[in-house]
Structure formats: structure tokens, C-alpha cells
Amino acid sequence: MSHATTDTMARHWELEPHHHPDGASTSLGFWVYLMSDCLMFAVLFAVYGVLGTSFAAGPGPKDLFDLELVAVNTAMLLLSSITFGFAMLAMGKGDQRGTLRWLAVTLFFGLCFLAIELYEFHHLIHIGAGPQRSGFLSAFFTLVGTHGLHVTFGSIWLVTLMVQITRTGLIPANQRRMVCLSMFWHFLDVIWIGVFTFVYLLGMI
Amino acid sequence: MSADHTHAAHHDDHGHDHGSYSSYIKGFLLSVILTAIPFGLVMAGGFESRALTAVTVIGFAVVQILVHMVYFLHMNGKQEEGWTMLSTIFTVVVVVILLAGSLWVMYHMNTNMMPQMDHELTQGFGS
């Protein structure tokens, strides 16, 4: 590239690197990651949409799903979302103990969600409706299982963050981590809205 | 440096809105209502028309996703100079194309390749 071009560019665009405070673009970067995760879930939803009626003469949603259990599960995830919100508010006030307490409550609800989901999976596999039974069940286990895996890793992250906050307090780095994890956690709740609507509710109509 | 000051600095740097107690409660109550109604509807057996029930349930889901975006994820057009909103809109467009396209194409594949059409197809390929 010639000098002339560079000069022209310099007049129109700023070529000098900006100084950004440490981690200033972290939340946008994390949001872009969440959006790419959203695309992955969209693919799994599309797979479920295509395979969701391929029962291979096996059981269908109405034979398998228990809406009351799903309602309890949804309540767990929703409660964990609001308690994470309270943890963020406690962090905003600089209340370290309050933050840790609300994170612990969030973890509790997250683990309840996972326990109920594992119970459901175990029950399905036990009655012979495992992922290998039909296209519908393969797609179901992949979609719901991927969401469950996300919640599992979110819970591990939650424990890690609680340890970090206990050790170093609510330093800016930990606040940044809290912002990212809160986005991750609320994002998983948004995905769950899609799961309970498209998989469970529409399957039971 | 007090914790409050740290937070204020953080607030300015990132343009973040951690929301308020009342906004979280409002979002939570809206979510509970928007979850309970479709669950209640389906558990009670739904409307006469299955399609109407399905459309209603999906409608509630869309509204609830928007509620979560606004009250829990604090989405607005100003966050990160609009890049958060822009990346979200881009993702939504891709997701809609992906879902609608996959379902449309696969539905037509299924209806046009039903077993009763095998005869024609084999003839077509065989000749």
C-alpha cells in the first residue's frame, strides 16, 4: 500500500489504536459468543423440528412427557434467573456477602433444575425411550441435553466465581466475570423458553 | 477506592445497566404470568383448534423472550454503541432463515418423497 493511500486513510479514519480500559470490550465479545451459541441451538431446534415427528413406531411426546415436571423445572430456572439478578444488584451495592449468598441460591436452583432433568432422562432411558429409540428421541436428547450441559458448565463457572469472589473480593475483574456469567445464565433461560414451548408444550397439544 | 466508586467507574466504562430491584421483580412477574398461561392452556387441553393453541403458545414464548431480553439481559439500542443490538438483530435474521429454510425444505422433501411415490422415482432414476 502506497504512502498516499495511507495518508488518505488517515484523514478519514483513525489509524492510531485507541486506549481502551482493561476488559472494556469483554461484554460485547461475550455477547457475540452467546449469539453464536444461539445459532448452534437454532440448528438443534431445526433438527428437532425436522425429526420431531419421526417416532419409528415408538413412543411420542404425549406418551413420554410429564408437563407438571417440566413446569417445576421451568420454575427452577426462572427462580435462578431472578436470584442471579439479585446477586448483580448486591454486587452493584458492593455487598460481597449478599452477592455470595444470592449466587449460592442461584446455584441451588440451577442444581435442582439439573437434578430434575437427569431424573427425566433416567426415567426415559429406563422405560426404553433412550436416544437410540427413534429420530424424535435422538433429536430430543441432543437438544435438551445440550441445554443441560450448558447449565452444568454454568454451575461449574458459578462455583469458580464464588471461590474467586471469596478470595479477592468484588474487584473489577470479578465484576466483569459476574456480568458475563449473568448474561450466560439469563441466555440459558431464554433458550429454555424455546425448549419448553417447542418441545414440551407443542408436543403435548 | 470504595466499592461504590468501583461500580460507578465500571458503569461508565462499559455502559452497562445492571437493572434495578423493581425492574427484576417486574420482569420476573411478567415471566411467571407468560409461562403459567401457556402451561395452563396446554394442561387444560387447549382450544378446539390445535393450530390456534400452537399459535397462542408460540406467541406467549416470543413475548416472554422479549421480556427476558429487556428486564434480565437489559437490552437496549444504546448498549455498546448499538453493537449489541446489531449483533442480536443479525443473529435473529440468521436464525429465522435457518429455521424457516430447514423446515420448509425438509417438509417438501418428506411430502414429495413419500413411499407411494417410490415407483415413479425409481422409474425416473432407472431410465
TrEMBL record, chain A:
It is found in: Cell membrane. Gene3D superfamilies: Cytochrome c oxidase, subunit III, four-helix bundle (1.20.120.80). Keywords: Cell membrane, Electron transport, Membrane, Oxidoreductase, Transmembrane, Transmembrane helix, Transport. InterPro entries: Cyt_c/ubiquinol_Oxase_su3, Cyt_c_oxidase-like_su3, Cyt_c_oxidase_su3-like_sf, Cyt_c_oxidase_su3_a-hlx, Cyt_c_ubiqinol_oxidase_su3, Ubiquinol_oxase_su3_dom. One of its GO terms (cellular component) is plasma membrane. Residues 1-204 form the Heme-copper oxidase subunit III family profile domain. The chain crosses the membrane at residues 30-51, 71-90, 102-119, 139-163, 184-203. GO terms for molecular function: cytochrome bo3 ubiquinol oxidase activity; cytochrome-c oxidase activity. It comes from the Bacteria. GO terms for biological process: aerobic electron transport chain. Belongs to the cytochrome c oxidase subunit 3 family. Cytochrome bo(3) ubiquinol terminal oxidase is the component of the aerobic respiratory chain of E.coli that predominates when cells are grown at high aeration. Has proton pump activity across the membrane in addition to electron transfer, pumping 2 protons/electron. This is Cytochrome bo(3) ubiquinol oxidase subunit 3.
UniProtKB/TrEMBL annotation, chain B:
Pfam families: COX4_pro. InterPro entries: Cyt_c_oxidase_su4_prok, Cyt_o_ubiqinol_oxidase_su4, Cytochrome_c_oxidase_bac_sub4. Keywords: Cell membrane, Electron transport, Membrane, Oxidoreductase, Transmembrane, Transmembrane helix, Transport. It comes from the Bacteria. One of its GO terms (cellular component) is plasma membrane. Its main location: membrane. The chain crosses the membrane at residues 24-44, 51-73, 85-107. It is a multi-pass membrane protein. It is found in: Cell membrane. GO terms for molecular function: cytochrome bo3 ubiquinol oxidase activity; proton transmembrane transporter activity. Belongs to the cytochrome c oxidase bacterial subunit 4 family. Cytochrome bo(3) ubiquinol terminal oxidase is the component of the aerobic respiratory chain of E.coli that predominates when cells are grown at high aeration. Has proton pump activity across the membrane in addition to electron transfer, pumping 2 protons/electron. This is Cytochrome bo(3) ubiquinol oxidase subunit 4. It comes from Paracoccus versutus (Thiobacillus versutus). The lineage of its organism: Bacteria, Pseudomonadati, Pseudomonadota, Alphaproteobacteria, Rhodobacterales.
